[in-house]
Design a protein that fits this description.
The protein contains 4 helices and 14 strands. It has 247 residues and is α+β, with helices and mostly antiparallel strands. Strands 8-14-13-10-11 form a 5-stranded mixed sheet.
Amino acid sequence: MKPMFSARFGIARGAALAAVAALVVPAGANAAIVVGSSGPSAATYPVGRKLDDSGVVTLRAGDTLTILDGRGTRVLKGGGTFAVSVSSTVPAKTSTFAVLTMQRAAKRVRTGAVRAGKDAAPPASPNLWFIDVEKSGKRCLVEGEPVRFWRLDTDRPATYAVAPAAGGTSVSLAFAKGAMVAPWDAASNPVADGANYAVTLDGKPVGTIEIALLPGQPADAEAMAATLIEQGCTAQLDLLATTLAQP
């Protein structure tokens, strides 16, 4: 069976990658990376810019800058001058990153419902590679690894229809009651870089998902963030930054 998606690459994306590449620090230097930026200095510190760990950033009033390194993510708010690195006494988020990016079979994922408190934010996906079936956007996957879809509401069974956005035969994606994760039959329906799926539930549109295949899994948090930024997988970048947040 032919892949349901065709590869496609945009000129705009290529230009964006070139811009990010130009913002690297000298070779051999330890680097943090900007994963969120807003305010007057956003153009100076764009998302994707790498920062020397031994350096500083200077922010203006109204700036908010989120940087990620091996110890996690920090949010800096201007104005003021801030060190890029944090104290060596701050524990690294290495184990948290390992759990978040673990390639796990769907059958090994606990299926119990997760409920947030009254004022708490909705629970986030426990794995960076799970595709949130209810959210549109681009998702990065590692080539050759299992494809898993995730949902927040586990109170009832649900069967989603997933089909090529340009038209074609749909595939059923079934969640049992209490199940957070459903596997995708990649053997019968392989995905390809640039693949686009239209998702529906009970005949009603849910969203569209685009797939970006990675040749391998980035080794650390900084490399992962850089890859997600380059590919435009913003939902996963947000999940990475939130999960690795320092207290």
